[in-house]
Structures are given as structure tokens and as C-alpha cells.
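[job 0412] stage=fold_complex status=start
inputs:
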Amino acid sequence: MSMFAHTETNARSRLPGGKALGGLLQRLGLGGRGLVIAIPTLWLLLFFLIPFLVVAKISLSEAAIARPPYLPIWEWDDGLLNINLNFGNYLFLLEDPLYLSAYLESIKIAGISTLIALLIGYPMAYLIARSPENQRNILLMLVVLPFWTSFLLRVYAWIGFLKANGIINNFLLWTGIIDEPLIMLQTDFAVYVGIVYSYLPFMILPLYANLVKLDQSYIEASADLGARPVTTFLTVTLPLSASGIIAGCMLVFIPAVGEFVIPALLGGPDTLMIGRVLWDEFFSNRDWPIASAVAIVMLFVLVIPIMMLRKAQAVEEGAS
Amino acid sequence: MSEGQLTTDAKPWADPNATPFLQIKNITKKFGAFVAVENVSLDIYKGEIFCLLGGSGCGKSTLLRMLAGFETPTSGQIIVDGQDQAGIPPYARPTNMMFQSYALFPHMTVEKNIAYGLKRDGLPKNEIATRVTEMLSLVQMDQFAARKPHQLSGGQRQRVALARALVKKPKLLMLDEPLGALDKKLREETQFELIKIQESLGVTFVVVTHDQEEAMTLSSRIGVMTAGEIIQTGTPHEIYEYPQSRFVADFIGSVNMFEGRVIEDGKDHVVISSKELGGDIYVPHGISGVEGQKMAVAVRPEKVRISRTDLGEMRNKVSGTIDEIAYMGNSSVFQVRLDSGKRVRVSQSNLTRDDDDALRWDDKVWVGWADDAGVVVAS
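[job 0412] stage=fold_complex status=done
writing structure:
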């Protein structure tokens, strides 16, 4: 390590004028490697950490009819610094069962949607990965194709499918399978359809990336040792694609928990998801501190399972 | 000694009454218009180590994959122990395979890898445990039972792969380049271990390899493959000393090849005149040729004698100049440029440590070989 650092400094000192700057960066712990990491770190700092701290700050203030609609949490008054931290917003979230049930409902809907997306996405990813090489890119493009249309538009299109005199009901009535239209729109069912449909590519892509790398000789070795195809799938393919499954599930589950548009457009009045609660607090009630507290709690609800999954993944990667 | 094991003298392939254990009958495999394996027929007997030897793309791996059931023959028949294998999926075949990449399951420990096949057969737990332990000690991997494949060296992985393939006591074990991933020293050690294990278990081995040295040391018989066909089958000795074609002579070991035409067809000999050699070659027996027919004589470098002085009575001799000397330790290889311009390879064992009279570059020498040292191959 030290040998590399040494040659690096030597190389830099040969550049005219670069010596001083290089030396400074080196002293700050920013060698070539550090600089590469510095850019994304700066990005995350600017666009994630600072907004997060702003929201965290608002969540600790008191609501007010003002502009902005909350009181500052610190005041400088005659040489006296007054800091007022209001934890009442968080206590309020605990008191009112609405929030707790919204969190649980969101997690439930996101969880079930993730599971359905996995059940649909896995076979699709598997087949794409096993199809001839020249066809894979076309199939992958078909998976991504819906992204070329606006997300909002695609969710709206589902209203046309699901409503009482929509395409599905009309077709079923025409075939005579049903006598009166099914109520699908503004139900949890419609929310599941919307979420699974919208996030399916996020499930398929990481699974595909994982499965395409899966060495075919493992499958053959398993068959050779006497395992039927189903056993091979369960004992070899599935465990070896675990990291793809985890990645796909996280990519679907996390945005689905905070989803606002799909439950708002397709869900019924009793579909209580945290995204909608957040929206209502911000825009209908104009209670920014409560809304911020809801957002912060949501973040922690998501961060903890993510961290647990990351840890599991790290352990697994260390082993393979 | 277990039943079915080949003693060194037994030659079941030479016995017309012996029943082959594995019969390959007119197997052809086409991928689209490409013919990977063409009309191969082969009988392999119980307890043999049969090597399919050939360069890459010669169809040897495809043939092996058909035996394992991963590929379906376009036409032909594979019979193992009297049972036609057509339509039997890989998981139901009485054969096992050791993969070139070893294909050890990365998410399982050594122990679980070996137990995998036994579990699929639904054996009771304690029997699985006993057999896995037996296998582990056979391949000397006892201490590594709890390791994952990525924690093992190449040689250790090779042992685990072998153990995993053998633990089910297959009737036939196929090995795809079993030693290919090992370095030279380890390869030599492992070769002998492999033979020892094969002998102690009495399993029939079919080995695919491109390494002729590996084929020579391991096998009871070798089938040399090229362009999808087996062009010669025989014991390592037969293949080396009696190649039937130029390709085989050239592929196994190194060889000096002299082209020529028959100028004299005697009762017990022929004489071939070779412009390349700048002289006549006397071949005592075994072939018949019409005068004027084109032929080639193959002579192995170690069978060529080299000397500063005339080789006396020797009939096949020419003179030349030493162009190059490669000292290999146990032997030296000389490149001799003949007066005709052709280069001849001669190898000589280094029998003493120092030789004051050793041959040097640019020495004028005679090279020659005994009457029966050369093999006539179809030209």
C-alpha cells in the first residue's frame, strides 16, 4: 500500500505546478482513490443529507399560520440562544392510530406487491437469461419499453382497463362469464395491479443480471448428480440467485411503501397508504412539522430493513 | 483387489468374447449444418480408463456430453451395461461426470457438495454421513469438510469434485479435462492418485483431454479424435509406436516425417526414396506398396542416433550440421540441418553429468536410425 502511495507521489511531482496541489490533496486524504469517492459523496451530501436535515429540522418545530408554516427552532435574542425542540409531532404520530395503521398498511401492500412482482418477474428474468444471446437485448428492451411513456399516463391507462365499463369488464360481459361488472377500480386490488405493473421492470432487471451470470455447469452438475429439474431449481438456482432476489425486492419494496400516485388514482377511499397521508398533511392540512415527522419515521421504517438486508448480503457475498 | 479391475496384462478389447461395458454405436451429432461428432463407434470395457484425446473443437467434449445426457445424439446408440441410454434424462443415468470447471456448488460446503448426490437418492442420513466421510478420507480432504469451495486451492477443488462424482458409485465416471486446471507438478502427483483411486474402486473411467501426456499416463486405451471422428484407438504404446496416420504420429509426441516414393518393393522390405532426406529409407516389413507410391516415414526423435563419426552398418543414415541444441536437463534435443536442408529433431538422454566430448553447435554429424525405428504412415 505504502509502496503504491509512494509511486503515486513521485508521478505527481513530475507534473509542473501539480506538486503543491497534489501534496495538499494528499494531506487531506484525497489521493486518486479518495477523489473518485469524493464526487458521489458530495452529491449525496448535497441532495440527500442536507434536504434530510432540513426535513428533520422542520419535524422538530411547531406548526404556525405563517410563511413558512412553522416556527423556527432556534432564536437569537439579546445574546441568548433559545432552542425549542418540539417532539410533540412524533408523540402525536404515536397517539393517533391513523398513522400507525397507515404505516402498517403501506408495508403490507408494498410487501405483497413485491412478492407478486417476484413471482411474475423471476420466470420472466429466467427465460430472458436462458434465451439465445441475440434475442436477450430485444426481450430486455420490451421489459423497459413502458418507461418510454409517462408513469402517470400508464397509471391512468389502468383506470380505463379496470373501471366498471372499462375494457376488462366489457370483455367479460361480452363473453358471458359475468352478468354485472366487477368492481375493481378504487379497491386494494387495483392498487396491487398498479404497483406490480409499474415496478415489475425493477424486479426483472437485477434478477436478469444475476441469472445471466449463473454458470450453466452448476445446473448440469446438479442434474448429473440425480436432481430433477425442480430440485435443481430449489437447491441450486434459487440460492445462487439470492442476491438478485434481494436487490429486486428492495428496488420494488422501497418505492412502493412511499407510493402516492397509484393509491391516489387507483385506490379506494379506505386504501390508507403513508404516501397519501403525507400528501394530505403537507398540502391539505398545511401541517409541515407533522408531515416532516411522518417522512422521517418512514425513512427509518425503510432504513432498518435495508440495513439488515445489506448485512445479510455482505455475509453472503463474502461466502461466494 | 476389487472385482472388475483391469490387471496390467488383461486386454478385454482383444478378447472377442468379452462384452463391452459401454457401447457407442454410430453416434453422430450435428449442430445445424456443423457436424460435431461423426459416426463414432467405440467399445469400452469394465475397469478401463479410456481417454478421448484431441485438440479443441474435435468433438470429444460433445461426445462426453452425449454420454452424460446433456446432448441428444442426432443418430446412433449409447448402451451402458446393456441398457440403451436413449431418452433417459441426465438425472436418471447410472453415470456421473466430473466437470472441467469442477462446478462445485459455491453456496455449499465441501461436505454438502459431496452429499448432494446421495441426498437426491433419498438415502438415510447416517448412511450419507458414512459415505461422505469415506470419500473425504479417500481424497484426503477430511480436514476441509466444512470449507466452502472458494476457500480451497485448485488441487483441493479437484479432489472434492472427484469425490462428489464418485460418491454415488457410478457405473461409469466421465472426467472432462480432470487435471487441466492444475499446475504441472500437481498434475503429475494427481495423475497417479487418480489411477490409484480408480483401481481401488473399480469404476470405469472415460476421460476427455487435449493433453497427450495426461492421456499416456492415465489411460488403458486412447481414442484419438479429430474433426468429429475417432481416427485411431489403441493402448498408449500402440498409439505412440504404431501410429496409423500422419495426424496421430504428429499429435502424440514429436516426430520427424520424411516424404518419399517407393522405389523397391522387396519380399521382406521396401525402400523409399526421400528427396527431403536426401537418401533412401529402408523399411523391413509390415507394409506393401506399389513402386512409385507416395509414402511417409515417421521417426521419433529419441530413436534417432547422432554421432560425429559415421554410423557404420546403419542403413538409414544421413549427414548434417547441428543447428540448435536445447538442454532439457534429463535430455538434450538437437536440431540437425541435413545437407538436403530438412531439419531433423534428435533427442538424447543425458546419461552423465558432464561430457567433455559433448556435441556442440555447428558440429558436422551423422544421424541415423535402425531399420525398424521408422513407421510408415499413409501420406
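[job 0412] summary: The helical segments of chain B are 60-68, 110-120, 125-138, 154-166, 184-201, 212-218, 236-241, 246-251.
[job 0412] exit 0
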